[in-house]
Design goal:
Layout (H helix, E strand, L loop, with lengths): L1 E2 L2 E2 L6 H45 L4 H18 L6 E7 L11 E12 H4 L7 E12 L7
Antiparallel strand pairs: 1-2, 3-4, 4-5
Helix pairs in contact: 1-2
Length: 146
């Protein structure tokens, strides 16, 4: 059919062209959402590890036992959650153990974990992400400390 010198053509093939144009940005957006979700889940694992380590340190009888228990609890929680740290740093503030019995005291734990992006997102992905969390637990006011 001709209209004023122009030939009207059908729509055949336009859906394939639209799909070819829209597919890469859509796939990139989905991939970005997956990466963000994985990082969020890893952050939750670090938060849980800080909480568990702080709780383990707060029920220890001595400051040195609190250090050891906090490290063990953090490593166990991260292992259970499937998060493998290239570098795991567990810092325990045991200054509350020197507070006299009868006075409120706390023990704090800070965790810093460097995770390879290949563990978070996909194998072979370069780079790393540093995740951190802290938590403070109270010591029993009337329990002996040393």
């Amino acid at each position: 059919m001709m209209i004023r010198g122009w030939r009207i053509r059908g729509d055949s093939g336009s859906a394939a062209i639209e799909a070819a144009i829209l597919a890469p940005p859509l796939l990139a957006l989905i991939g970005l959402a997956i990466v963000g979700g994985r990082i969020q889940v890893a952050g939750g694992a670090i938060e849980a590890a800080a909480h568990d380590a702080s709780r383990a340190a707060s029920i220890a009888r001595t400051a040195s036992q609190a250090q050891a228990d906090a490290h063990a609890a953090a490593a166990a929680t991260l292992g259970q959650r499937g998060l493998h740290c290239a570098t795991l740093t567990v810092t325990v503030d045991t200054s509350g153990f020197s507070v006299p019995v009868g006075q409120p005291a706390t023990v704090g734990v800070s965790i810093r974990c460097v995770v390879d992006c290949s563990d978070l997102v996909a194998d072979g992905l370069p780079g790393s992400k540093t995740l951190q969390a802290s938590f403070v637990s109270t010591l029993d006011t009337f329990r002996t400390r040393s």
